[in-house]
Design a protein that fits this description.
about 150 residues; GMP Synthetase, Chain A, domain 3; SH3 type barrels; 2 domains; five-stranded antiparallel sheet; three-stranded mixed sheet; 8 strands
């Protein structure tokens, strides 16, 4: 497991009881470098949406837990937030909750001279993701998908 994956897994383990105490669920945890800064991001959610107080309470408790365990030697910025309306669907649990929803898919390489597709998420498995477009169903190999996110409809 890479350093990044180790930090994400250990942080999520610390976050499990904190999320339960605050009535939220863990959507995702990521450890990324942007420019010269490292960020440890925890995304939380609940059925009626999270508010600033939810984020503040989880952030304080997680910060205290991270300080106690202190397994990340690099300086980093901790952020706790909602995954947002156009949330990225990274994990199978995200995809499962989003069946029937409008999604946008971006590919690493073009298919039919196009790298971006939109449609209703119909189904997925370990190897593929299928959406329904106006013209019918289209299936993509998951290895070819750079990003899947919920479409924002204004």
């Amino acid at each position: 497991m890479s350093k990044k994956e180790t930090y994400e897994v250990r942080t999520e383990e610390l976050l499990v009881p904190i999320a339960a105490q605050n009535g939220v669920e863990i959507y995702d945890v990521e450890y990324v470098k942007e420019g010269s800064e490292y960020y440890l991001r925890a995304y939380i959610d609940k059925p009626d949406g999270v508010n600033i107080l939810d984020c503040e309470n989880v952030s304080r408790a997680l910060s205290d837990a991270l300080d106690r365990v202190d397994f990340i030697p690099d300086a980093y910025i901790l952020e706790v937030s909602s995954p947002g309306l156009g949330r990225t669907l990274k994990k199978d649990k995200h995809l499962a909750k989003s069946i029937g929803e409008d999604v946008e898919i971006k590919l690493f390489k073009p298919v039919d001279k196009c790298k971006e597709f939109a449609g209703v998420l119909e189904r997925f498995d370990e190897q593929t993701v299928t959406i329904r477009e106006e013209s019918g169903e289209r299936t993509f190999d998951r290895a070819d998908v750079a990003l899947i996110r919920l479409a924002i409809d204004f």
